[in-house]
Amino acid sequence: MPRAQNKVASHRRRKKTMALAKGYWGARSKVLTVAKHHIDKGLQHAYRDRKLKKRVYRSLWIVRINAAARIQGTTYSRLMHMLEDKGIGINRKLLASLAVENPQAFSDVVKFAMN
Q1: Maximum distance among all Cα pairs of the chain, rounded to whole angstroms
Q2: Residue range 3-15: mean pLDDT, rounded
Q3: Bigger pLDDT: 5 or 36?
Q4: Could you give the CA distance from residue 3 to residue 17 in angstroms, rounded to a whole number?
Q5: Can you tell me whether residue 75 is helix, strand or coil?
Q6: pLDDT in tens, 17-72
Q7: Is 86 strand, coil or helix?
Q8: What pLDDT does 1 receive?
Q9: CB 97, CB 65: distance < 8 Å
Q10: Domains of the chain by range and CATH?
Q11: Contact indicator for 90, 65 with CB cutoff of 8 Å
């Protein structure tokens, strides 16, 4: 009895791998074994960097809030402490967007926190 190799499933699996490697340079997009390694590595980076992206954005928001707070005569640390003491629950993302897009509203928030 001949050995069944399940050619359809094997072909689809290889085709899917090569489709993921599309756009890679050289053998990374042409040779199955090389492409497999680089796809695995790329997926590892994608997983790690989805977590890293959150950290990068948070630090960006903090830098923006600090710059705008210093214009108002305080620092990021003091501003966040004053907001917490007043019970104002504005998150960093919203504060940063206020600082960039609406400086008047940001200064009102700072003045309210200082009083």
Answers
A1: 88
A2: 91
A3: 36
A4: 25
A5: coil
A6: 999 999 999 999 999 999 999 999 999 999 999 999 999 999 999 999 999 999 99
A7: helix
A8: 79
A9: no
A10: 7-114 (1.10.1900.20)
A11: no
Contact between 99 and 67 under an 8 Å Cβ cutoff? The reply is: yes
User: 45 vs 33, 42, 48, 104, CA distance in Å?
Assistant: 19, 5, 5, 40
Burial of 101 (0-12, 13-18, 19+ CB in 10 A): exposed
pTM of structure: 0.74
User: Which amino acid, one-letter code, is at 81?
Assistant: H
- Per-residue pLDDT of 62-94, as tens digits, reads 999 999 999 999 999 999 999 999 998 899 999
Residue at 47: amino acid letter = Y
Q: Are 83 and 111 in contact (CB under 8 A)?
A: no
89, with CB counted inside 10 A (0-12, 13-18, 19+), is exposed
User: Which amino acid belongs to residue 99?
Assistant: A
